[in-house]
Amino acid sequence: MSHAALRFLPAVAMAAVALAGCSDEAPQSRTAPPGSSPMAQQAAVPFNDADVAFARQALAHHQQGVDLASLAETRAENGQLKAVAKRVIDTHEPEIARLSGLIEAWGQPAPDDPNLEHIQRDGYIGPGDMAELAGLSGKDFDRQFTARLIRQREAGVRIAEAETQHGRNPDARDLAATTSRSQQQEISELRGLQQG
Prior knowledge:
The protein has eight helices and no strands. By secondary structure, the chain is mainly α. Helix 3 packs antiparallel against helix 7.
């Protein structure tokens, strides 16, 4: 072996040792380099299966909440009910973006159809119920909408509570706590409207 080749061997050996420590599967807990993008920093924060399940379920739940609340804009008679529905939309739209960002940062697939993520879950409003609501207006709409939105909000609280109990990611846990508080407040308001 030539003298030049012998000088090259230590560098090859060092590279081999460095590569041996690499793996195709990145750990779910990393430290992002300083100055990296917020998305990269979020990806570096630990997360677990409960966080991923929460993000996917909450994304589906929030999207359905927006779809449901949007019906009230033209069909509800009660002004307070319209105000609650508007608040649902205003709260959920930025949270949908935040949940989508978490899913993307963790390298997880977004649901192909968010409704599929929500099917079989307690509180899911099926297509038949949505179509029925879309055909109502005035007091009939208000009564049916309120009952369904309460059920949908209660499901959202359960999704959020599962995250606060089992999740690991600080941003997901923070979002779950915020979601739980806002939806419990909405449930109280909606029950007051039912009784009043």
